[in-house]
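Session log. Operator J.P. requested a structure for one protein chain; no other inputs attached. Running the standard single-chain path with token output.
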Amino acid sequence: MNAFLTKVNAKKGEKIMSQFTETLNGEYYNNLEKENIFATCNEYLQKKHALAFPHFENYLKLLILFQEKNISTANYKVFESFFLNNILTNKRITLNKTNKFILGITHLIDKNDLYFSNAVKWQLSNNNYQFLNEKKTFKIKVNNVDITAYAKKDSLKIYKTGGFYYPLINKWKGYGGKITWERSGLPENQIYATLNTYVIDMTKSGFEVDSVLFFYDKFFKEPILGHLSYKVMHISKNKDPKYPQFQSYKNRFDFKNIFENIDFEGGFMMKGPQVYGQGTKKEKARIKVYYKDTLRILATSKLFVLKPKQIISQNTSVSIYLANDSIYHPGLIFKYNDKNKTIQLIRDGEGLTRAPYIDTYHQVIMDVNLISWPINVPQLNFGVTGGSTQHNAKFKSVDFFKMNDFLNIQKMDMKNPLSVIRSYAKRNASDVFYDVDFARFLKASIPQAKRYLLNICYQGFIDYDFETGVVTVMPRLYNYLKAGTGDKDYDVININSDVKKGNNAELSLLNYFLKIHGVPSIFLSDSQNVMIFPENRDIVLKKNRNFDFDGKVRAGNFLFVGSNFAFLYDLFKIKMPDIAYMKMQVLSDKYDKNGMPIPVIVRNKIENASGDLLIDMPNNKSGVKESPQYPIFKSFHDSYVYYDSKKIQKGVYHRDKFYFQIYPYEMDSLDNFNRDNIKFNGYFVSGGIFPPFEESLKIQPDYSLGFVRKTKGTGIPVYGGKSTFTNKIKLSNQGLRGDGKFEYLTSTSFSDNFIFFPDSMNAVCQKFNNTEQKLST
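Structure written below.
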């Protein structure tokens, strides 16, 4: 032996032989064992063709270590017998594998390593192990020990476990034990898993175990069964570890009040310190949010991140419940922050977030970047995410239609995609189908079909679950196609909100009123030229596109200004109980360069009015059918025209005494009337100049509202009967004038331009007579 080693390397050979000789001369090995050692060396050389270095060297070092560590005789005998009778005689066990076996036992004895390599090391917490040779299988039995795996400057640990290690196949078969989440910063007594039987391939830096019992008293009163995986991974700075991971077998748990007024339904998973609520393809996980015991938000997703103070989910379908209706989105970012008790629903322009909200209560399609809700407050806020430069939102009627938009959907396709989807749904006899089936119908690849469907989903015509592939055709698709062929009425109502700061809108959960800000104008009918201009750019949207507002209404050639206006969608009219004033424009006698009459504003306002504006026939909101009699204004109460402007005789006609009272009336064709046909019947009060009388206001040559009246018989009293005027009385913005005869006491004046003021009369007379009065004697 000495010659064999020193011949190859004298220095190393002498050193190892010196140590080995000292070991043999000790008391650890008996004579029989010494004989077996020499027999083993011969077998090793002859059967395996072992080399002096490293093979014999490693074997001798192991023998020395048995003695140095005072390994039990029983363990040595098992090793000796197995090595001599099972390894050296087995031709299938190569020299390399034999050497690895020796090194493995060496590391176990020296460092308690069950397995080691350059990549990973599995180490026992003590040397309480036993060598066994059963049915020609060598295994190491371990009881009540901690096992730690080291790799990538990190480690994992199994506490208080037992089992058998098979060094020739590097396999550990364990039973019992405990896994904690301490390395994730969670207390070991609050969250842990216990193992039943399990197997580990010790060449790897991790393992997976089925049927573990998981304990987490925050969520579960009793432990739950599931699958555990554990892997050693380097943890980057400021990042949470990803292991251990636990996945519950049960797909449905019902967790009440995971946060105040928030419930969770779904499966349970942990990755490191992170809790996940998990769904399946058939049934997604759910977050339910309540306000005063009423379900207000239902969010469904394949995966929710349940942090200690947060809930986060991507690609989340959300329904906001409003009575029997809802505001729905197929896939957005869901966030809940328990610090400020606020939910955020975010559309970041990626994937399904590009799709709009569908609001069945207000009957609008909403293009809003952010909806935030402090869940203890009955109000949802609509706006933009922090840092966004875009502060606009859109609320479009579900029946909105423009032919250009319809054609743009088709683009370069041979057939409009909406028609294609309708045809497939009809052939399939269902509004619900799978994208893979639609791809076959389309004769396209699945990725092409997915892109095709996503584009339609982004426009709010279908609901598309990209993960499951389920497509649901929405009623709007059919209505839009019918509108395109003229088989269904439509509208042009598109509410644009643009604010410099603050919310675009707020939704009350008490009455479902949606107050929208930053609305400069809304077209209600382009064919009848009806448009509103909200005061302070605010409207209050109610059920089915009804909305309240203050401000201005332009209807053809009329402008109504007031407050407490209410647009009623189904009746397609505006109720206007408080009209501050009305103005109108008429075509003048002058023409522009194109030969068209130039419109001019009538100089007077009609004030303190009330009434209804009928925009068009309720079944003709599109204006496709000709209805020239619309818009129609129906006045309900008396209204007034005043002449107290400073531009009218320096404002001498004070409105409290001088006015024209217009009786209730109805006027049609507001966008195409003839000015000569305008007539307002009413009652004229001239502040004591003339007795009040009934008359009709018409458009005067100066484009003001007034009249020309001819007196009857002997004339009309003036100034309380002190005088009499005969012939024509004229009212316009030139003032109250007369053309005729003015009699006062003994004088008679003739002029074509009397100007009557409340306290006097001025005129340039063409003729003046004064009858001499004789004094009585």
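Operator note: The first strand starts at residue 113 and ends at 116.
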